[in-house]
Specification:
Largest sheet of chain A: 5 strands, antiparallel
Number of strands of chain A: 9
Number of domains of chain A: 1
Helix content of chain A: under 10%
InterPro entries (chains A, B): Cupin_2, RmlC-like_jellyroll, RmlC_Cupin_sf
CATH architecture of chain A: Sandwich
Strand order of the largest sheet of chain A: 2-3-9-4-7
Pfam family, one (chains A, B): Cupin_2
Structural class of chain A: mainly beta
Protein name (chains A, B): Cupin domain-containing protein
Distance between the termini of chain A: 26 Å
Order of helices and strands of chain A: EEEEEEEEE
CATH superfamily of chain A: Jelly Rolls
Number of helices of chain A: 0
Oligomer: homodimer
Radius of gyration of chain A: 13 Å
Largest interface: A-B, 27 and 27 residues
């Protein structure tokens, strides 16, 4: 057993990505953010689908059609493969914990 | 966008299972419990692997080798397919929110 709050660094100069599970067609990842965003030109264009949940903190996703969605604790969203998106905001005042399930 | 705290009934005479995502080899389910347990003889013996996380509340899993693991908020665990287990306790005083990712 492990906990999503384990090993959270006091300082987060960069986002931290940790695989919690990797098994064939599924990967579960914890992402820690504190104010980081994707670079302006940094669209994610992924081969895998991604189901994403925020456990703590807040983040905002912007899609290349202009949609902009702000997520808080408990909010979840499915991002189909190749739906281009970027992280346009994360809470600068606390550590945001994302849970992402990547699947094919 | 949806939230894991949406549609939580005030009363929970039975556990409530809701599919949040179902796609090929992956299924993500929310489970709500309030004091329910598996029947004494009610072992889960699943064809799928299950990665389980508690978001709120508490629950306890007992395995057929005698292992007994109590989970609280943020705790997660991977249960391989056919590892026989039952839910031996859930918090009677609050609604427990489980997130389960079933995969093959």
């Amino acid at each position: 057993m492990n906990n999503l709050h384990d090993d959270i660094p006091a300082e987060l100069p960069q986002e931290v990505f940790s695989d919690l599970l990797s098994a064939g067609s599924v990967r579960i990842e914890r992402i820690l953010s504190r104010g980081q965003t994707s670079p302006e030109s940094g669209w994610y264009d992924q081969d895998e689908h991604e189901w994403v949940l925020i456990l703590q903190g807040g983040g905002e996703l912007t899609f290349d059609n202009g949609d902009c969605i702000r997520l808080g604790p408990g909010d979840y969203l499915n991002i189909p493969a190749h739906r281009r998106h970027r992280v346009s905001w994360t809470d600068p005042d606390q550590t945001t914990i994302w849970l992402a399930v990547f699947y094919r």
